[in-house]
Structure formats: C-alpha cells, structure tokens
Write a structure and sequence with these properties.
This protein is α+β, with helices and mostly antiparallel strands and 153 residues long. The protein has two domains: 94 residues, SH3 type barrels, CATH 2.30.30; 31 residues, no CATH class. Helix content is 18%, strand content 24%. It is built from two helices and six strands; from the N terminus they run ββββββαα. Strands 1, 2, 3, 4, 5 and 6 form a six-stranded mixed β-sheet that branches. A hairpin with a 4-residue loop joins strand 2 and strand 3. The longest helix is centred in the middle third of the chain and has 16 residues. The termini are far apart. The mean pLDDT is 88.
Length: 153
C-alpha cells in the first residue's frame, strides 16, 4: 500500500508577495499560480512550486514569468488570501499527482492587452530641424539635402 503524498510546508495564497535573492532573480515577485513538485518519486514528500512574476507588474507582455520552488524564497513579504477552497485545491492536486490526471477541458486564456497603450508620438522638431518621424516619407531626402546644403542657409 502506498502512502499518501504530503506537502512539505504551507502553500502560499495567490497574490502572495515574496522576496528572491539569487543569481537569476532578485527583488519582489507575486505568486500567479501554484503547484507542487515531487523531487523523489520513491518518497511521499512534495514541495510547493509557484509561478511568479515581478512586482509590481504581474503578468505583462514585457515581463518574464517563471516557476520556482518554495525553498528558493528568501522571505514571504505578504501572504495572499486562503480559505477552504485552497485546501480542496491542494487535496485535488495531490490526489492527481498520486493517482493520475483527471480529464479536463482546457480553459480559454485571455490573450489581449489588459490596458491599451498607444504608440509613442514622434517628438516635434525645433524650427530649422528635421524631425525623424515615422510618418514622413521624405525624411531621408530632407536629411541628405540638409547635409549637402546646410540648414536653411
């Protein structure tokens, strides 16, 4: 008979803020998702594993998210909310790790921008200067004329 899997330590709530200090990651990070990792298949111990993103950005198009074991966390700065639903989530997770995955239907993931940010506007040129603007099809020609004949002389 096999022994039930046991989580070593507590599972942090979603939204927890943790401090990391390593060669790859330093600073504050937010817990986006939680899981568990079984380092030795012959033992019944599992350790918490988290998907993290940099604080204050969270999951953003220009920010990297990454998995991390709980043992790599230097400090828990803020613990996210947990309740009985988290205990049920953990029990289900451990059961699936021990007995195999249950059938699931993949959820639709939000892939659009959360905040629409327009492209930067080109800077205005000072009088007598030629602006390097995206919308000016004659910029290169103006630059060459300016080089050859000088600025408005």
């Amino acid at each position: 008979m096999t022994m039930a899997l046991e989580l070593q330590g507590a599972l942090l709530g979603l939204g927890s803020i943790v401090r990391l200090e390593s060669e790859n990651w330093t600073g504050l990070f937010v817990v986006l998702a939680r899981g568990a990792y079984r380092p030795h298949q012959e033992h019944n111990e599992v350790v918490p594993r988290y998907l993290l993103a940099p604080h204050p950005y969270g999951e953003a198009p220009d920010q990297e998210t990454f998995p991390l074991l709980a043992s790599e966390i230097v400090e828990v700065v803020f613990e996210g909310y947990t309740d009985d639903a988290d205990a049920a989530f953990l029990a289900d997770l451990l059961d699936q790790m021990e007995n195999g995955a249950r059938p699931v239907v993949r959820a639709t993931q939000f892939t659009e921008e959360l905040t629409a940010i327009p492209a930067a506007r080109p800077e205005k040129a000072e009088p007598g200067e030629i602006a390097d603007t995206v919308g000016d099809p004659f910029f290169e020609l103006r630059r060459l004329v300016e080089q050859e004949y000088g600025k408005g002389e």
